[in-house]
Amino acid sequence: MSKKWTPRMSCLQNEILHDYTVKEVISRQQQDGWLGTTFHGEKGMEASIRLLCEKGVEPSHPAITNLH
Asked: Does residue 11 fall inside a structural domain?
Protein backbone atom coordinates (compact mmCIF):
# COMPACT_ATOMS: atom_id res chain seq x y z
CA MET A 1 0.00 0.00 0.00
CA SER A 2 1.55 3.23 -1.11
CA LYS A 3 -0.74 5.65 0.69
CA LYS A 4 0.23 7.27 3.95
CA TRP A 5 -2.65 6.39 6.24
CA THR A 6 -3.66 7.47 9.68
CA PRO A 7 -3.30 4.75 12.32
CA ARG A 8 -7.09 4.29 12.29
CA MET A 9 -7.20 3.76 8.53
CA SER A 10 -4.31 1.29 8.70
CA CYS A 11 -6.16 -0.63 11.42
CA LEU A 12 -9.37 -0.62 9.40
CA GLN A 13 -7.65 -1.90 6.24
CA ASN A 14 -6.00 -4.63 8.31
CA GLU A 15 -9.41 -5.68 9.65
CA ILE A 16 -10.83 -5.73 6.12
CA LEU A 17 -7.96 -7.90 4.83
CA HIS A 18 -8.50 -10.38 7.67
CA ASP A 19 -12.20 -10.78 6.87
CA TYR A 20 -12.90 -14.44 6.07
CA THR A 21 -14.68 -13.71 2.79
CA VAL A 22 -12.03 -11.25 1.61
CA LYS A 23 -9.27 -13.78 2.34
CA GLU A 24 -11.22 -16.47 0.47
CA VAL A 25 -11.64 -14.29 -2.61
CA ILE A 26 -7.99 -13.22 -2.63
CA SER A 27 -6.90 -16.86 -2.27
CA ARG A 28 -8.68 -17.68 -5.56
CA GLN A 29 -6.50 -15.29 -7.56
CA GLN A 30 -4.76 -17.12 -10.40
CA GLN A 31 -1.20 -16.47 -11.58
CA ASP A 32 -2.53 -14.46 -14.51
CA GLY A 33 -4.43 -12.13 -12.14
CA TRP A 34 -7.90 -13.61 -12.59
CA LEU A 35 -10.00 -14.06 -9.46
CA GLY A 36 -11.60 -17.46 -9.97
CA THR A 37 -11.97 -19.35 -13.23
CA THR A 38 -15.00 -17.69 -14.84
CA PHE A 39 -16.22 -14.15 -15.39
CA HIS A 40 -19.82 -14.49 -14.15
CA GLY A 41 -21.10 -16.42 -11.18
CA GLU A 42 -20.76 -16.43 -7.42
CA LYS A 43 -17.04 -17.25 -7.48
CA GLY A 44 -16.21 -15.54 -10.77
CA MET A 45 -14.17 -12.47 -11.56
CA GLU A 46 -17.10 -10.05 -11.64
CA ALA A 47 -18.48 -11.04 -8.22
CA SER A 48 -15.01 -11.18 -6.69
CA ILE A 49 -14.09 -7.65 -7.75
CA ARG A 50 -17.43 -6.38 -6.53
CA LEU A 51 -17.01 -8.06 -3.14
CA LEU A 52 -13.50 -6.68 -2.64
CA CYS A 53 -14.63 -3.17 -3.52
CA GLU A 54 -17.76 -3.31 -1.38
CA LYS A 55 -15.82 -4.65 1.60
CA GLY A 56 -13.40 -1.72 1.29
CA VAL A 57 -10.20 -3.28 -0.01
CA GLU A 58 -8.02 -0.39 -1.17
CA PRO A 59 -7.59 -0.05 -4.95
CA SER A 60 -3.82 -0.16 -4.43
CA HIS A 61 -3.96 -3.69 -2.96
CA PRO A 62 -2.16 -6.27 -5.17
CA ALA A 63 -5.32 -8.38 -5.52
CA ILE A 64 -6.83 -5.46 -7.41
CA THR A 65 -3.77 -3.99 -9.13
CA ASN A 66 -2.81 -7.41 -10.53
CA LEU A 67 -6.15 -7.94 -12.28
CA HIS A 68 -5.81 -8.64 -16.00
From this structure: yes
With a CB cutoff of 8 Å and minimum separation 6, the contacts of 46 are 39, 40
Number of structural domains found in the chain: 1
**Helices in 1-60 by DSSP H: which ranges?**
7-17, 20-27, 45-55
- Residue 44 covered by a domain: yes
Cα gap 4→41, rounded to integer Å: 35
17 φ, ψ (degrees, to nearest 5) = -70, -15
> Is residue 41 a contact partner of residue 35, using CB atoms and an 8 Å limit?
no
User: pLDDT digit string (tens) for 12-68?
Assistant: 999 999 999 999 999 999 999 998 888 999 889 999 999 999 999 999 999 999 987
